[in-house]
Each structure stands twice: as structure tokens, then as C-alpha cells.
Amino acid sequence: xxxxxxxxxxxxxxxxxxxxxxxxxxxxxxxxxxxxxxxxxxxxxxxxxxxxxxxxxxxxxxxxxxxxxxxxxxxxxxxxxxxxxxxxxxxxxxxxxxxxxxxxxxxxxxxxxxxxxxxxxxxxxxxxxxxxxxxxxxxxxxxxxxxxxxxxxxxxxxxxxxxxxxxxxxxxxxxxxxxxxxxxxxxxxxxxxxxxxxxxxxxxxxxxxxxxxxxxxxxxxxxxxxxxxxxxxxxxxxxxxxxxxxxxxxxxxxxxxxxxxxxxxxxxxxxxxxxxxxxxxxxxxxxxxxxxxxxxxxxxxxxxxxxxxxxxxxxxxxxxxxxxxxxxxxxxxxxxxxxxxxxxxxxxxxxxxxxxxxxxxxxxxxxxxxxxxxxxxxxxxxxxxxxxxxxxxxxxxxxxxxxxxxxxxxxxxxxxxxxxxxxxxxxxxxxxxxxxxxxxxxxxxxxxxxxxxxxxxxxxxxxxxxxxxxxxxxxxxxxxxxxxxxxxxxxxxxxxxxxxxxxxxxxxxxxxxxxxxxxxxxxxxxxxxxxxxxxxxxxxxxxxxxxxxxxxxxxxxxxxxxxxxxxxxxxxxxxxxxxxxxxxxxxxxxxxxxxxxxxxxxxxxxxxxxxxxxxxxxxxxxxxxxxxxxxxxxxxxxxxxxxxxxxxxxxxxxxxxxxxxxxxxxxxxxxxxxxxxxxxxxxxxxxxxxxxxxxxxxxxxxxxxxxxxxxxxxxxxxxxxxxxxxxxxxxxxxxxxxxxxxxxxxxxxxxxxxxxxxxxxxxxxxxxxxxxxxxxxxxxxxxxxxxxxxxxxxxxxxxxxxxxxxxxxxxxxxxxxxxxxxxxxxxxxxxxxxxxxxxxxxxxxxxxxxxxxxxxxxxxxxxxxxxxxxxxxxxxxxxxxxxxxxxxxxxxxxxxxxxxxxxxxxxxxxxxxxxxxxxxxxxxxxxxxxxxxxxxxxxxxxxxxxxxxxxxxxxxxxxxxxxxxxxxxxxxxxxxxxxxxxxxxxxxxxxxxxxxxxxxxxxxxxxxxxxxxxxxxxxxxxxxxxxxxxxxxxxxxxxxx
Length: 1041
Description:
Elements: H1 2-17, E1 21-22, E2 30-31, H2 57-70, H3 77-89, H4 97-110, H5 114-135, H6 143-155, H7 174-177, H8 191-204, H9 208-221, H10 228-241, H11 245-254, H12 270-273, H13 278-313, H14 316-339, H15 346-359, H16 363-374, H17 383-404, H18 431-446, H19 457-470, H20 474-488, H21 496-511, H22 515-528, H23 551-554, H24 556-576, H25 579-599, H26 606-619, H27 623-637, H28 645-668, H29 672-684, H30 686-689, H31 694-713, H32 717-730, H33 734-750, H34 754-768, H35 775-791, H36 796-813, H37 820-833, H38 835-840, H39 853-882, H40 887-909, H41 917-923, H42 928-971, H43 976-1003
Antiparallel strand pairs: 1-2
Helix pairs in contact: 2-3, 3-4, 4-5, 5-6, 6-8, 8-9, 9-10, 10-11, 11-13, 13-14, 14-15, 15-16, 16-17, 17-18, 18-19, 19-20, 19-21, 20-21, 21-22, 24-25, 25-26, 26-27, 27-28, 28-29, 28-31, 29-31, 31-32, 32-33, 33-34, 33-35, 34-35, 35-36, 35-37, 36-37, 37-39, 37-40, 39-40, 40-42, 40-43, 42-43
């Protein structure tokens, strides 16, 4: 390469000494007649060096080849370049041999002579490998590119360039061609790389079946190649992209075969065959492990999403897809656990496996895996959930068996055998029921009340007792029913199972003739007055003779008073507590309050009790239950009338709060119709309009504005206008009132009522133009007026006048740069100045027909200077946009400035050369060939000078684009202007960008230095490199389902 550089220097020196062209002044052009003439025809036939041992023969032939190669498109240019390069290939020891070999291959490729191109690219790869073996150093830097173009050549399917794919004409595919030894050696060490690269090309072109076919063939032929794990992973990716999920999982599973554990004592396995490739071995281990876990997590998350959508959309087909995805996730989890049993995440992964099995409806295996998680010694974070899911899985199995008719659980106890004494014989319990009973027992034993988040311990306890009762195990059942009755007769654990337990105890006493037991049970029932319910229960009318013997009626009055006091005390305790204790106390408070109201709904304290209960439930995030209580307040308290105005005021306040909380929670959970309905009741009802209670007045104002907001979101703009107008008339807060007036005008705009929007916006401006706090909205109102003018088809002058009003309004508003108001002003200003760039697009330098060289030069200077002045004027027009400090429009301004100078540079660069008349007269005396030479030399000189003038102009454009790209990156902005900036920077290349930014730094020290690759972006179909330590997504939690 040193000799080559010397040759280039010598050629450059020869050009500098030539008397034909001199550049004494960049603004002047001097012409000197040529020193020789003549035309070279067929220069290579029998061509021999003048001096046999000349030092730069190789470089000379290489430069000749380059000349023709660069003249691509000229007649026989590629054939002549090949002929020149072939002069070098005669000597494999030549220092330029590999370069010439590459250029010959490239020339054949350009000429669409693909077999010859493949032959020479292959020769270059072989030469590079031979050199590496011979010298121990890399043979050729062009080797990777040669391999790449071998893949591209085989992937190309129109070798005869007739616009018809070769396979459609019965010719071979790339898959067939790559196996043809006449085209590609099949026995070289690098042959596999060509197969791999062919697959890569197909993959990038989204020809996924073709990529898979090539890669699979390559793995069959070279199973122990160092890149086999990588190719296996690519096949899995291709299958995934092609939606062939089963095959993708199979190939990701196959990645485990490349690890050391798969080898054991086999010396021919991949791992043992690649001990000299430690990095590939590490990569193989990473691919195997990551592929499985990523596959599992991917399908698990996909299944969760599908299941959620299925529930939301009531779409059974989505549930079927979710089940399939859960199955794929389960399969991947199981494979991972089997291959990496000692992974620190084994406990979490086994739980995920069980979860995926459950939701894929593989309940038998789900029960097994959940049991393994439940019984694991590694962790207990999923103990309660896993233990519950064992029961749920077995229940699903039992339900399936019952539906299929293979299992019929008992619904009645066995018949009593006559005595004395009477007795009951147990009946054999089916194995499935035994398994479920055992799972319940384990849950009760291992999951505490605190960890029983689903509150199933009591249900499991009761169901097992009932199971024993139905299958005749009465002594064991009696013991459990006694405890259940005792625990669930009353208090926070009271529920209907306590009553059923009492009834079953009584039934056993009756059936077995145990009169004393029956009396004890009756007395205890009456003594304790068990409610058997913690929440809403059916009311009992104790005035009805039919209910005279109901235990609740006997002690109703006293219990109600005690319950209210106890519940409110619990509520106060909850207010002072925190965490889980607070949640428990609020729930207990709500339970007791609702029980009390159920027992005596006509009690004067019932409305307040229901309100407290609903508030307690809200504070435990049980919003749906709270909503039901608020609705109950509306239904039951609404018809009530207070004994006096004070009591009526309290009832009104409770009702107003109920409507507001119902609407508020409905809005939170996207039930907008229900929300607006309740807000409207609060806003429109005369009951609340006449109230002077500050709390009611505030809620009514909020109801008006919230109803308007929801109606606006529902695009009911007419309704929204009505509520905004009513709200604006009564709002006490100036900011809320101001916003309401503005929203009235905004609704007109959203209705596309351009005249109405303009009228209301002007009304708003007139009302608030002197209000300093309304500056942002005033500017926005002017912007809406401008938009309305545009949409309504007003004239350009009217539209521009409206835009100028936006700019002027911002100046008067006192709003800061970078504010939202500045966004509208920046946008308006940009539109106002942006028209000039379109007019400038057609700028060109047209020298006409100059009489003399001086006239020609002057004409160029005059037009270029005029264009520069116009570009500077355009540039200056965008400068005010930057003062608004809105990144989007600053970027747009930078791009437009860059474009203005690109137009100027293009015009200068494309300046046509016109031979002056005086020079043309002089040249007529010369032979034609000499005239052409002189003209070419003069044109080259002129073009060189114009190029020199163009470079600083281009550099200004590059600097503007760089500022735009950097601002986009800093602000994480992606729009049409950022894309233009990036595209234009890409067109200049790294070296030119660095040169231009360095020039900008020379005049502006604050201009940030250029970092190599700073403006790079991924090629189409590829991703930019990711950090090596990038981790997979976190495993899902139960809540994510």
C-alpha cells in the first residue's frame, strides 16, 4: 500500500505541474493552450511496459481499471476495467492482487455476469484464507464483503436480467445454485459461510422459508461449525417471524444440544469439537438459556394479553388463542426447568409453568406443578396462590368429569341405619374428591388468615366438612360443623355456611335421635341470635307474623345499636392504622355497618351508616362494592324526607356525595355513560340546586364541569357546550370559570363550526385579553381562529393575517418562551416565513452565452451572489422561530435553513459550462480532438472552482441538519423534519459530516464536536446493536393476569 500511495502522490504532482490549468485567483479563470493531442484507441492490445522493471506497473494497471470501472455505463467500460485488472492477476504475489481480484469480481457483478462474479469472490476468500495460514495475519480486509456478495449473488433470482424470476423460467433457485460445485466449491472451510450468508440475505428480504431451507441444509452438512448455535437461533427467529411457533420452539429447544451437558463423553459433539472457540461456546450457552426463557415469557405475556382482551371483548376465539399461547409457554417453561434445574429463578419459573398449564386448561399437570410450588423449600412467596390453585385445578378436573358423566358426587347423606342406636355407615369417596379434600386441608394448614388474600380458608373448611357429611363420616363432620357454627354464627367471619353447619348439626341430631343435642343447638341459636352474614342479606320484616320466630327479630333493636357503635369505632381505628391492618379494619367496619342496616333499614342512622360503609370500601380499593352501596343510598335514602331542615340538609349532602362518588368511580373505570348520568343528576336536580350547603354547592359545580368534560370526550359537543356554559355562569373559581368559557369556543371548533368557533374565540379574547392569567388561552384562541380561517377556505391573506395575530398575541401575553403558548406562536411564525423556501427551490445559475471568459466569470459571480443573498434572507426569516424555544419548530427551522443552502449549493454545483465566444473562435483553428481536450480541461477547471465554492455552502447545510438531528435526539422527537435531517446527513457520509462540523466549530466554539456514527441509523430491516448486558423482560406476576 505504501507503493500505491507513492504512485498516487506522483500522479498528483504531475497534475500540479501541468501548465494547462492555473488557479491564480479563485474569482478568475485563466486558459493556457494544451501541450499535446491525440486519442488512445484499444490501449491494451499487446500493451507492454516501457520499462520492464518499472516500479508502479501494478498501480498503473489498477488506476486504469478504476478509470473504466468508475465510468460505469460507458460502452465496454466494465470489460475494459476487467482487462486492466486481469493484468495484475497474472502474478498472485503482486501486492495489489487481492484488490484487483475483488474489483474483477465487482465488475462481473455489475455486468450481471454472476457465475464469473461468484468465481472471483470465491477466489478472493480462498486467497485470503491461504494468506492467513501462510502469514498468520488476516489475508484481506475485503473477505467479509466478498462473502456477503456471494450470498447476495446466490439470492438474486434474475441472473439473465429479463425481469422474470429465474425459477419461473425453469432455472435453478439460489438454494440449488449454492449447492452447484461448478459455481461454488463445496469442500472448502469457508463454504459454510456462504450458505450462512445466503440465509441471511433471504432473512433480510423476508424470504423466511428460503432462509430456513438454506440454514437447515447448512446445519445438516456442517453440524459442528462454530456458528451452528447462532444459525439454529436464526432458524428459530425465522420460524417465529413466519408464525410457525411450534417449529420455533423446537429449534430453540435444540439450542440446548450445543451445551457441555449435552456432550457427556461424546468427542464428536459440537461442544467438544469447538474447544478452540470459547466465545462461540459462551454464546451457545447464552442462546440456549435465553431462547427458552424468552420464548416462555413471550408466550406467557401474549396469552395474558389475549385472555384479557377475550374477557373485555367477549370474544371466544381470543380465549382459544390465549389457551394455545399458554400451552406454548408451559412447554417452554418445562424445557427450561428440565435443562436448568439449578437456576436461581427455578421457583418463580415453576410457578409460571403451573400458571401457564392452568390457563391452557391442562389442569392435571397444573395441579402437579402448583403442588410442587406449594411444597417447595426454595421460597414461599407463591405459597397461598399455588395452594389455592391446586384446589382450583382439581375442581376443574372434577367439573369435567361430572360433565362427562364419569363422576357423580353425592348431594344427600347416606340413609340412617336403624338402631338402637341409629347409625350411618360411610360410603367410599371417589379418589378425585379425596385429592381435592386433601388439597383444601393443606391450604388450611399452611396458609394463615393474613395470607388468605382470596378469603377461601373458611369456604375450604366448610366444604370439607360438608363432604364428610355427605359421604357418611358423621363423627368427623360433626366436629367440624361445631367449630364452623361457633366461628360463623356472628362476627366478622359470619356467613351462610355457619347457618348450614347449624342446620346439618340439627339434621344429624334429628336423624340419630339425639334430642339433647337438638335442644342445645336450638338454645344456642336463640341465645346468640346468629345473623349468618357479614354483608348484604335479605331483610327480615319482624312485623310479619311469619317471621316472628326468626332469631334476628328477637334481638334486633339491641344488636343494631351495638353494631353501629362498634362499626364506627372500627372505622376510627382504621383511620389511625396503616397497611394491611388498616385494610382489615375498614373491611370489618363496612361489614358490620351493612349488617346493621340490613337488620333494621329504617333506623335513622342507616343513611350515615351506608355512607361510612361505602367510604370504608373505597379506602380498601373495593370500588365496585362501594358503588353498589352508593346506589343503595340513592335508592333507599332518596325517597326519605327529613323531620326538619337540618335533617333534610344532612340527607341532601349524603345524596349529593353518593351521586358524585358513583359518577367519579364510574369515570375512573371508563363507564362514561354511567358517570355522565350521575353527574347530570347532581347538576340538574332541583334538590341540589337550591341547597346552600357548601359541600353540596361544590359537588354541583364539579358535577356540571365533569359532565361537560365527559360529554366532550364522547364527542357530544352540543351537550358539552350547554354544561360548560352553565358551569361558567356559576363557577366561583376564576381559573375554572375561564377554562369553561374557553371550552365553549373549543367545542364549536371541534364541531367544525368555523364561523361559530371564530365568534366564540373572539368573545373569549375580548373577555380575557387583559387578564394576565389567561395569556396562554388567549394565544391558543387566536391560533384556533387562524385554523378556522384555513379550514373555512378564507383567502391566503386572511389566513396569514390571522397567523400574524397569533404571533402578536404571544408578544403581548407575557408568556414565557418554551410555554404551550409559544408552541402556537412558533407554529404560526413558521408558516408565515415558510413560503419563501418553495420559491427558492427553482433557483439555478444560468450564465447565458458569454462573449468572453471575463463576462462568463462575472455572470457566474453575480448570480451566485444573488442566490447567496436570497438564501441568507430565507435563513434570517426562520431565526425568530428559534426564539420561541419550541423544539419541534426549532428543528423545522434548522431543516429549512439547511435546505436553503443545499438549494444554493446544488445550483452552484450544477452551473453549466458555456464556451465563451472569443474562446470558441480561437479553438476553431485547432483540430477537433484538441478542441475537445481544451474544452474538457477548462470545464474541469471551472467545475473545480465551483466545487470549492460549494463546499462551505454545503457545510452550512450540514451544520443546520446536525443541529436539527441533535435537538431531535435530545428531545426524543420523531417527525417529518427530524427524518429529513437524518436522511440528508446520511447522504453526506461520515467524513464530510466530520469536516463540516469541524468547520462550524472553528467559527463557533460552542458547536458540539462530532462523534463518529453520531447520526447513523440502522439499515432497512436491521436493528442497531444492543448493549451486551441487556436483560429479558421480567417474569409476570399474578396481578398481570
